[in-house]
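Hey,

The postdoc asked me to send both predictions to you directly instead of through the lab channel. I've kept everything plain text so nothing gets mangled by the mail client. Protein one:
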Amino acid sequence: MSNVAIGPVKIALRKPRYSMWNRLERSLYRECEYSLHIPYGQRVFTPWFETDRDTSYANAMRKVEAGGRLGVSLNRCFVMHHLAGSALRAFPDSPLAECGVYTGGTAQLIALAIQDSTERMPLLHLFHSFEGMPQSSVPERDYQSPGDYGDTSQEAVEERLKAFPNLKYHAGFIPDTFPEVNDVSGYSFVHVYVDIFPSVAACLQWLWPKLISRGVMVFDDYEFFPYPKSARVAVDELE
């Protein structure tokens, strides 16, 4: 499920196709501490489905799901929330970043982790084109086509995240907006949620060297079924 390296830390998570899975999840798995592992028939520990409890993760997820669309599955939300919280508790003054914001669901989750983990309120830098995938996306390599995921806007995301004063938006295509943070370093947590090879490679080139030692960079698309030639190759080439 994940690819992990320590110092700084890299985490790569899977991405399923959602429509059928979400229906199954909501009807059978929600609020279950243990779930059936298909196809092996084993019961496995799945705390990410327990969104009715009084925990930091569960409280955050209720707010995120009430806030609007969420583009990632609950297991990835659970891992991301805990990793962001751990990074924040270790480095409460260090900035954070998300590359690829889409509808703002994961940014809201990270912002809530900041509120729960530290009183310092470090900046969360949000990088997104708000115009869909760039012209550099090649379907044969990246699975995505130019303009995909264009059904969002900065205004809508800002409205969703208006409760958080510690956000800084960088609207435009990656890496064109990265010079705006040339003077920022020591990131404790970076979420890379951009799918395509050129953008993942640019995030690595610009932000990986600026991670604090023992910081965390999460690659949402590393082992997803459609992206063996894009996100995965970009990460593996760094190694």
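Protein two:
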Amino acid sequence: MSLSTILILVALILFVLAAIGFGYKKLDLIAAGLALWALASVIDRLSSLNLSTILLLLAFVAFVVAAIGWRYRKVNIIAVGLALWMLSLVVTLVIH
């Protein structure tokens, strides 16, 4: 079992805990699960650092920041992380 598989399984557990309403202090379990999922994807791509990987790293940072409860005005940090993740996927599809 690889490290990325373990991270995805832990992310799944966090999503299930968030779905049943479990919470821990100010930790956002959905953002933490997304951060682990993004980290698992980054680990798989880390051997070749390109624009897509950099965008995925930025998405990971956004998810970590959202998980610890940091806020910036009215910006939804989870949405920023998801937008960065989708942009990394689009970049992968467009640039071959």
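Summary for protein two, as requested: The two ends are 30 Å apart (CA to CA).

Thanks,
C.
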